TrEMBL record:
InterPro entries: P2_C, P2_N, Viral_Major_Capsid_sf. This is Uncharacterized protein. Residues 10-132 form the Viral coat protein P2 N-terminal domain. It comes from the Bacteria. Residues 145-278 form the Viral coat protein P2 C-terminal domain.
Amino acid sequence: MINYPLQQPVNVAPGAISTLTIPTGGSQTLVGIKLRLSGTTFDKTKVDKVKVKIGPRLIWDLTMDQLNKINNYKGNADNAAYIYLDFTERDQAIFPVKEIGGIDLIAAMAIGNVIVEVTINAAAVAPKIDAVGYFEPSQGNPFVLKYLNYPASTAVAGKFTLPLTFRGALLKRTLHFYTGTNFSATTDGNINRIEVKKNGAVVFDQTCRDARFDQVQQKKTPQAQTFVVDYIIDNNHDAQMTTISKSAGGAQVFDTFEVNAYLTASDSIQTVVEAIDVINNL
């Protein structure tokens, strides 16, 4: 793939939101961004949040802890001096399907430039950010990878239905970050089970321990206080979960989903939906 330095991020200062702008309109697809962090006291432990926008549309909304756990779950490189934003599915075997989710800079041009916002912690000292972009030829499609955050909380244990809608997006995973008791090798975490129903039929139902066994079997790395519902755990792109169907009359209708988390105790849950979607949908 092609790679080259990007424009220098602006507003790089303690307690600030630094902005990196990548102009759209070129005949390339943006498949990755590497941020190199340096300074007197500055690494990714001094980054609070990372957001990606195309024009006014928010497509990534993650804390640094969430992004780090997502990358580590997938077995990506982990270095305190770097943050990598990966718009592809690295371990899928079929090219170019694995790179669907990259931002086609021609398709995105009508919406706006790509903007990366990095929220820098106030404890950073003399921070500096350098950015490198990774590109492939234009894909000619409007689909991008999204990470969107849906918070919810419950004051009681037991079954809790999460407030999620998908509006036709193609689901890769949902990642459920919780604050309660973490799992151990022999016990479930506070989210001890998740059940997913599509149009009333169960499409996923596993305990925390069962899900983690499958993840390790497929060379994923379970992360603390995180329950991952992974529809493409075996890297099969055809297993991505569709969320729209044709009715008997031929009209397109959104599928209904019920996502039930089973909690051992009360908790606050941040659900990150990882999906392939058109820019202006979710």
